[in-house]
Amino acid sequence: MRIVFRTDASIRIGTGHVMRCLTLAQELRRNYHPVEIIFICRTHEGHLADLIKRKAFIVYLLQPPNERFVPRSYPDHAAWLGASQDEDAEQTYHVIKSHINEKIDWLVVDHYGIESGWHKKLRSLTQKIMVIDDLADRNLDCDLLLNQNFGADCRHYEKKINANCHTLMGTQYTLLRPEFAVLREKTLARRREITIPERLLIALGGTDPDNVTGKILQALDLSVWKRTDVILAATAPHLKQVKEICESFTNISVHVSTDNMAELMSCTDLAFGAAGTSTWERCALGLPTLLVINAENQKMTARQLDKNKAIILLGPFNNINAKIIRTGMNNILNCKKKYAALVSACSQICDGSGTFLVAKKMAN
C-alpha cells in the first residue's frame, strides 16, 4: 500500500491530529506489508516534523503559513490551514506527483481546515480518500470517514458526504497505540482497589497555549501527593514557566514530549486533562479525570462525557480558577464511591482496539 497523510500540528492546532495519524501509520506499517507511508505538513510553529522523522516516516513540509490569509468560511479552525484551499491542494498535489511515481492507495486527511473542494482536486492521484473528523461542520468528498468521538453518528453528516462513503463512527474506532489495550485490564484491576488517590497526572494537551497547567499547579497543595507527573510537548510556549514552578518539589516530574503516555497513565490515580484526543487514552485505562475544555471544538465531547458521568467537568479554560480546581478535586477525594463510579463509567467508553479495526478496514 502507498499511503499519504495530510495533517498539521502547531501551537494553535495542538498535537492531537498528527499524533493519531502517527498511531494509525505505525499500525499499518507493523501489520500490513509492504507499505509506503509519507506525511505532508505545513511549516507551522510547532509542526512536529522532527517527531515524525524519529518514528522513521518520511515527511515533506509545505511552506510556512500565510499570516495574511483570511478564510471565507466562518469557523475559527478554517484559518488553521494557513493557506487557501486551492493553494494547499496545489502544493500537496505537487509533493505527491514529485515523490511518488504511481497512484497512491490512500490519501488520509486529518485537518479541520480542509473540505470537499480540496479533496476533489487530489482525486486523480489516489484510489481512495479517508477523512478523520470530529466536527461534522463541512462537506467532505471521501470514501471512508472516521469520527472516533463518543456519540458520533453518521446522521450528523447527512448531506455532507457522498452516499457511497463508508463511515466508522464512535469510540470503538478510536486511534490509540497498542499499549493502551495491553495495559487496560491490569490497570483497571489496580484502580478498583484504590481507596485514596496518591498519584496525580496533569496533561492539558501537548502545547497548552493558555497555560492551564500553570493554573492547576499554583492552585493545588502539591506536597500532599505521593507523586505528580506533568506532561507537555517540547513546543509548549509555557514549558519553561511550568518547569520553574515544579523544580522546588521532589515529588513532581515534568515529562517533555514523552513516548510512554500509556505507562504514565497506567501508574497514576487521577488526572487533569483536556477534552482532546488524549480523552480516549484516559478512558481506555479507566483514569478518572477533571476535564478542561481547551477549544470550541471540544465542547460536544465534554458534554457527552459529563452527561454519562464519565468525568468531572471543570469547564472552559478561560473560566478556570483556583476555586473551581479545588472544588473539582475535593469532589473526588472526599468520596470513594465517586472515584469508583468514574473508573467504571469512563472505562466503558473506549477499550483501545480501534486502531486495529481502522487499519483492517483500510487494508481490505
Word description of this protein:
This protein has 364 residues and is of the alpha/beta class. The protein contains 13 helices and 13 strands. The strands form 2 sheets. The protein has a 7-stranded parallel β-sheet with strand order 3-2-1-4-5-6-7, with helices on both faces. Helix 10 links the parallel strand 12 and strand 13. It is globular, with a radius of gyration of 20 Å. The N and C termini lie close together (11 Å).
Provide tags for this entry.
364 residues; alpha/beta; seven-stranded parallel β-sheet
Q: How would you spell out the order of helices and strands? A: EHEHEHEHEEEHEHEHEHEHEHEHHH
Which percent bin holds the helix content?
Answer: 25-40%
Helix count from the secondary structure assignment: 13
Number of strands: 13
The radius of gyration over CA amounts to: 20 Å
Biggest β-sheet description: 7 strands, parallel
The proportion of strand residues reads 15-25%
pLDDT averaged over residues:
93
The geometry reads as: globular
Strand line-up in the sheet with most strands = 3-2-1-4-5-6-7
Structural class: alpha/beta
Distance between the ends: 11 Å
